[in-house]
Amino acid sequence: MASALKNQRIAVAKTYKLYIGGKFPRTESGRYFALEDKRGVVIANMCRGSRKDFRNSVVVARKAQSGWAKASAYFRGQILYRIAEMLEGRREQFIAELILQGSTPRAAEREINRSIDRLIYFAGWADKYQQVFSAVNPVSSSHFNFSVLEPTGVISILAPDDSSLLGLISNIAPAIVGGNTCIVLASESMPLCAVSFAEVLHSADVPGGVVNILTGFRAELTEFFASHMDVNAVIYCDGGKAVARTVQELAADNIKRVVARTRLDWAGSDAANPYLISDTQEVKTTWHPIGS
Amino acid sequence: MAQTVVNMPTRLPDLSNVPAVDEVGVNERVARFQSRSIKKSSKVEALKLILSMIDLTTLEGQDTPGKVRQLCQKAIHLHAAMPGLPHVAAICVYPTMVSVAKEALAGHDINIASVATAFPSGMSTLSVKLDDTRMAVDAGATEIDMVISRGAFLAGDYRYVFDEIAAVKDACGDARLKVILETGELGTLDRIRKASMLAIHAGADFIKTSTGKIVPAATMQVTLVMLQAIRDFYYETGKMIGMKPAGGISTAKLAVHYLVMLRETLGNAWMTPEWFRFGASSLANDVLMQLMKQSTGVYQSADYFSKD
Amino acid sequence: MATPENKLAFSGGWEYDPAPQSTDHITLNKRYGLFINGDFVPPARGRYFDTINPATEEKISRVADASSDDVDKAVKAARAAYNGAWGRMKPAERGKYIYRIARIIQERAREFSVIESLDGGKPIRESRDIDVPLAAAHFFYYAGWADKLEYAFPGRTARSLGVAGQIIPWNFPLLMASWKIAPALACGNTVVLKPAETTPLTALKLAEVVADAGLPPGVVNIITGSGVAGAALVEHPGVDKIAFTGSTNVGRMIQKTLAGTNKKYTLELGGKAANIIFADAAIDEAVEGIVNGIFFNQGHVCCAGSRLLVQESVADEVIAKLKDRMETLIVGDPLDKNTDIGAINSPMQLEKIESYLKIGREEGGEMHQSSCRLPKKGYWCRPTIFTGVSQSNRIVQDEIFGPVLAIQTFRRYDEAVMKANNTPYGLSGGVWTDKGAKIFKVTQAIRAGVIWANTFNKFDPTSPFGGYKESGVGREGGLHGLGAYVKLGA
Q1: Which domains are seen in chain B, by residue range?
Q2: Is C57 known to be catalytic?
Q3: pLDDT in tens, A11-52
Q4: Which strand (E) or helix (H) includes residue C430?
Q5: What is the pTM of this model?
Q6: Domains of chain C in sequence order
Q7: pLDDT band at A219, cuts 50/70/90?
Q8: Per annotation, catalytic residue among C111, C116, C197, C302
Q9: Does C490 sit within 8 Å of A269, measured CB to CB?
Q10: Inter-chain contact A289–B188, Cβ cutoff 8 Å?
């Protein structure tokens, strides 16, 4: 017995933190919430992110946005591809976390596979969606007129609660591949993968501030995600009519774009098409005379 | 021949400072002028003003003293059936016809303009051009319409073009100098704007679009750009420069549009024959027909107006 | 050029005689009902209000004041048409009806333009050359999309939404009606449109066109009324989509009202566009662009270039030329073919503009107006510019919606872009330079939906229009304008 104890290695548990501006701080509020498994055993103490964490995230997301938008489409595509590569290399960790949060091994494996493939899918769109959605418009006057997409800006994302990795990625990838930066509130009931995904993002050289991930309580943070005046669009994925009303009402204060992705089949084409990119794009039309 | 040039302006302007011109914008502005609706007494007033601004022109190789005399007669008596008409501003002829015109116009306050400087191509030496100019002035021309050396201008030899204009200006003595840019050969509105500035700085009293021998001749677009150059020079110096669109203006309606453009670009001070001319031969009759229609209410036929 | 020392003279001398467009070929009823289910019907509560000619302050006609009962009736008619003839119609046939509307507007163009100028105060030159031809072109453009929607949304299937409630402003009454109705119909929806209170007449004439074109009853319903009717339309549970053009404040209210309802919406709201003039621009054309930018349609234009940012080295020249150009603008009778600036649309709007003129002066701005004479009756405002103002001035921040330009200077590129973007709005912008690379740099940097480079205030049915930020949501016009009237599915 003594020798058995002697040989036992104590595992090092991970501290799950927030991801803000390319760094992994604890919540400024010092609060936490205990994440338990089905049997009530504490898996981890998660950061209970605050409105100030959100506010700080918007500041860094805004700061990062113009640079990220100016990066070439090729570059953004490579970064997304790199995220997929990093995720591939850490499959086992994510499978373990998914299982820890209640997934069956088969379902967990399916989810990680789909998540990696979803990243590859959107990585490929980086230098193509513009070609699909932009237009040269044949105006009647002597002008060259064209419409292109530009990122809407800073996006707040209330990620789906029931699809903690695939749903998360299906929201982040189309937002950032189009040059937006985002602040994401992770699944409340299954937040582990989101924090680990932040580590993947970090190791994939995603510039700091492009993606910011908070964990915490939906009921507490939703209003700030919807109302912040320096956020240009808000995406929400679940909740009933009451959530929809709250988000839309508060979003109206600065005419935010509101994207509802409720009742989406995250595994299907609803969550894998370029219109998810155009949801957070603005159409800019430019006129110029044609003359000598 | 050695040239003794007096009062020759020597400051070739920095043409890189001449503002750019946007062709589509110019077209749009011209369309706005053309959308002005000129009716009733303002039309009559405009038509009479147009008559008074005409440089009645004949510049044919087959011109004869007889034809020039007929033209002078027309210049004095535009249309017997309509009393109270103004006379034209000038007649415009080749140097060899100046003396004929001078005789025919004796006692009348009508200018004699002569083309000079190896008109219309300008393809000759400076000395020939200066002789040409002096000959016309000596014969009685009160106005000289010179052509610039387009070849030199297009080649970028602005100094040459500038000095040539300055020398001709000097040779003009008291005669007013109109500098023809031959815009149809300059190609772009940007070059026309530059050439206008160059001519003005070199001593032009008037700038003129065309010889009438090249298509396109005057257009409203080209004229607007030249008026803008005149305006810039006026803003800067307070000195007025005249404008003469020539060639291709044969209807009263079009001429009225030119007046609208003149009024809204340079203002009232330019609305006189002293500062604006139409170089035209058939315009006068169309204006007369329109005036007749205004006074009688009946649409007119060209058969009732003398063609000289 | 250095500061121009010498002024040009534009008053006196040869002047243009009045050239009024005759009104003898138009017919207007003394009273108009609501156009519901293919017929003009009296309003449920029997109330009417006057529509006034803002140039003469005279009554032109009386129009129905729709109540929520009338709105309900119109929405039900639209629903019935959607579930009935229109919904079942082959897209190509639907398109042919829309083509008919375009053709009839072209045929009745003169009548439309005269009524537009009578009712709204805009110069006949603009209603004749811009509003009415563009309205016809808009129907013509979208008609052709009706049977081609599968090519507009690759990979997805576009389906119509149902009943669209549409609320339009008073600055381009017929044109805005066509911007709203044409794409809605092309995508297979039916509509209930509410024109603005002060400019209902061309929408009612359009109702006649719709009837003449033989559209099935209820496909297009036009209800006149106040904001009460507009609110009833927004709140009506039978409406699937709201399209609104108007102020940002009302847009915000609409967005809040629609919260939690699943109704789609597009909003085309306010603006405070910067027109940026670089020293290397084609200056004379730029001055013309400034004039078009702010004095077009009395400045009652959401995308107006109401802020001028001019590079310091040419500022004096540009301002001097602008002042001279303003002297040649003819303000007066909207029906006169030579009028450049017509009547301010309503006494309320004139009061608002005048309050801003006061604020501008009180905050230290230097005001300059053209010296033109104004008619005695009617609502008028001279073209006005303010210099000596900065970003913190209210006339620089607020949308005035009148012929009032706030001028600032800048030295460097970044300063111009910073000032241009330093606003909650993002509808349009202008840039003037002769340098191609700079055009691309600036047009990319400005956060706005429509950028005019070396031109301003150009519109075309094929060209998407709409704003970033608080200037709105969604696009109207072009391929992108279709997205506002469909839902996409697998």
Answers
A1: 18-294 (3.20.20.70)
A2: no
A3: 888 899 999 999 999 999 999 999 998 888 999 999 999 999
A4: strand C428-432
A5: 0.95
A6: 31-269+468-489 (3.40.605.10), 274-453 (3.40.309.10)
A7: very high
A8: C302
A9: yes
A10: no
Q: Where are the domains of chain A?
A: 18-26+50-134+146-285
Is pLDDT above 70 for C327?
A: yes
pLDDT at C177 exceeding the cut of 60: yes
CB–CB contact B228 C284 (8 Å): yes
Q: Quote the ipTM score.
A: 0.96
Compute the distance between CA of residue C35 and CA of residue C217 in angstroms, rounded to an integer: 10
B104 alpha carbon, distance to own chain's centre = 22
What CATH number is given for A18-26+50-134+146-285 in this structure? 3.40.605.10
Give the per-residue pLDDT at B305: 85
Q: What is the pLDDT of residue B3?
A: 45
The full DSSP string for chain A is -HHHHHHPPPP-PPPP--BBTTB-PPPTT--EEEEE-TTS-EEEEEE---HHHHHHHHHHHHHHHHHHHHS-HHHHHHHHHHHHHHHHHTHHHHHHHHHHTT--HHHHHHHHHHHHHHHHHHHHHTTTHHHHH-EE---SSSEEEEEEEEE--EEEEE--SS-TTHHHHHHHHHHHHTT-EEEEEPPSSS-HHHHHHHHHHHHTTPPTTSEEEE-S-HHHHHHHHHH-TT--EEEE----HHHHHHHHHHHGGGT-EEEE-TT--TTSGGGSSTHHHHTTEEEEEEEEE---
Is C139 in a helix, a strand, or coil? helix
- Answer whether B22 touches A (CB < 8 Å): yes
Per the structure block, which two tokens stand in for C158?
């576009």
Catalytic (active site) residue B40 = no
- For residue A290, pLDDT beyond 50: yes
Under 8 Å CB pairs connecting chains B and C tally to 98
Partners of residue A143 in chain B, C-beta under 8 Å: 24
Q: Give contacts of B228 with chain C, Cβ < 8 Å.
A: 284
Dig out the tokens for A175 from the structure. Answer: 């937002």
CB contact under 8 A, C451 and A285: yes
pLDDT band at B304 (very low <50, low <70, confident <90, very high): confident
Q: Which of B55, B145, B205, B286 is catalytic?
A: B145
Q: Are B39 and C19 inside 8 Å of each other by CB?
A: yes
State the burial class of residue B175 (Cβ atoms within 10 Å of its Cβ: 0-12, 13-18, 19+): buried
Residue B219 has pLDDT above 90, yes or no: yes
